[in-house]
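Standup notes
- DV: blocked on the single-chain target, sequence here:
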Amino acid sequence: MAGKLIIGNWKMNTRAQSAQSLVAALLADPVCNQPWVGVAAPAVYLAALGAQLAGQSLQLSAQDVSSFAADGAFTGEVSADMLRDVGCRYALVGHSERRQYFGEANPALLSKMNNAMAAGLVPVLCVGETLGERESGQYLEVIFSQLAILSEVNDGEYVIAYEPVWAIGTGKVASLEQIAEIHTAIKTWCLQNAKPSANIRVLYGGSVKAENAESILKTENVDGALVGGASLDAGSFRMICQAAGKLI
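- DV (later): unblocked, structure below
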């Protein structure tokens, strides 16, 4: 895919009506209703939004996917096949909040990646360091350890999102130099270790807003953005998509 990829992560926000209203606003705007734009909605709303998005260009993403592949006695889980069945194209895997609050680690994340790809989804593997890990100088070691599952993953398409944990929801943004350093390091690591090694897109996901989107998206080796809070406002998200559209 040429150009940038923009995915809005709504996290645990919206209600049924507000979710549908937000999607309706995006669908009405040709800047946002594009195949390189997606929204990651809460699981409970995915079926309704999938129906709303049928035949449209705007893509639907899940915020998580089960590490269990087959149907069965896994209460509360949502399988990759179920997500694909309701119209999802993408699924986030290993978001920092999942790692922090639910203890998600590489073995389960590898299963999630493989299950997503087997079902025809494109998983978005999220990696990133905490403030302590950055200040200690261990940030690359941490990120490479999170990327390690890509040397074992099955063949298929996936995306990587770099999200410095210290910049998520804090208003702090990594400098353009820091972003370029990490994105270049990730791509270099992938060329040497990942399967497949080529044409892997790396998104930036740390407090991307309308005001900083263009400069971030122009940064070396940044292939798009994973947008948090700004994606809950149609106007702000439009400006981010507009900045990305200029670079196609």
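- Follow-up: The chain has one domain: 5-246.
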